């Protein structure tokens, strides 16, 4: 049995804290822990407010009246302002971080097949999920692997409001320790 004062390098990053307890740090998955076809549901959802939309839209210098001008938007096909689709994409991906890539990602490699089949409205709650659609070891970066993720965002009624395929480079367990 190991000495309780010596951390197990497989499960603990450092010395025990007060009372001999080891800290548990939230992290994403290492390459080996991703399973193709696994479905991850990211909770809690995120209820989107008017303030979220206006702040994100202005912070990113997107002056699209469809996100900012209530009077003009009322004359358009949806009859109201819509949530910025880049906010929808960012929130879909962001909600996956703690569960999938926190501290294990090396880099985002790219996005493809981004769609917004239904608008997100102020007051809607965005729920996200991710399916692992592919994984392979990197040919050029030893100790790292490439994971392909398909993110889907749905509103509180289950209607798909966004999808995106994202490719990420992540650490293999042994290389990261």
TrEMBL record:
Residues 40-152 form the MaoC-like domain. CDD domains: FkbR2 (cd03451). Residues 1-20 are annotated as: Disordered. PANTHER family: BETA-METHYLMALYL-COA DEHYDRATASE, MONOAMINE OXIDASE-RELATED. Belongs to the enoyl-CoA hydratase/isomerase family. This is MaoC family dehydratase. It comes from Cryobacterium gelidum.
């Amino acid at each position: 049995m190991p000495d309780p004062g010596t951390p197990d390098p497989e499960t603990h990053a450092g010395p025990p804290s007060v009372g001999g307890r080891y800290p548990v740090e939230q992290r994403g998955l290492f390459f080996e822990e991703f399973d193709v076809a696994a479905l991850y549901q990211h909770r809690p959802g995120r209820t989107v407010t008017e303030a979220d939309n206006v702040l994100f839209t202005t912070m990113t210098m997107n002056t699209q009246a469809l996100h900012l001008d209530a009077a003009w938007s009322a004359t358009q096909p949806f009859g109201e302002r819509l949530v910025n689709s880049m906010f929808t994409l960012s929130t879909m991906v962001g909600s996956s971080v703690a569960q999938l890539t926190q501290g294990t990602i090396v880099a985002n490699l790219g996005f493809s097949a981004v769609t917004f089949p239904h608008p997100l409205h102020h007051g809607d709650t965005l729920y996200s999920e991710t399916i692992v659609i592919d994984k392979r070891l990197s040919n050029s970066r030893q100790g790292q692997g490439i994971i392909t993720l398909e993110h889907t965002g749905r509103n509180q009624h289950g209607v798909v409001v966004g999808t995106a395929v994202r490719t990420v480079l992540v650490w293999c367990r042994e290389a990261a320790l």
